[in-house]
Amino acid sequence: MRTRQILCPTDFSETASHALKYAIEMANFYKVGFRLLNVIEQPYGDENYQILAITPEELAENMEEDAAARMRDILSELNSDLPIETVLRHGSPATQILEEAKDSDVGMIVMASHGRTGLSHFLHANVAEEIVNKAACPVLVVK
């Protein structure tokens, strides 16, 4: 852990922004770089069943451009002398986070938890919980 990068997945939420602060603090403490990861999920239809005026490929491209712009905004706000890499992946968040951690041989994952409880927790896949259970490296989950 002390010589390997920290992986910080983000969905650009307020909680993920809070987790990013922990990732930066850990990276500064251990003097290692970190990877900022965003996973772009396959878009699903909404409740209104609206007809899209663009193709699925155009929608995916727009989502990727938006994610890249948000990553650039985050990087411009960071005050760190450590190496920071940004990564965009496509697919299931849990699967892609675990693959990125393995492919990059990171020393730790620092990520946000959305803190769902009750029926909401039962109905929605908890990405943080899956990462904690399956990751080969330590995981810090931030509320």
TrEMBL record:
Source taxon at top rank: Bacteria
Chain ranges of the UspA domain: 4-143
Pfam families according to UniProt: Usp
InterPro entries according to UniProt: Rossmann-like_a/b/a_fold, Universal_stress_UspA, UspA
Spans traversing the lipid bilayer: none
Similarity remark: Belongs to the universal stress protein A family.
Annotated protein name in UniProt: Universal stress protein A
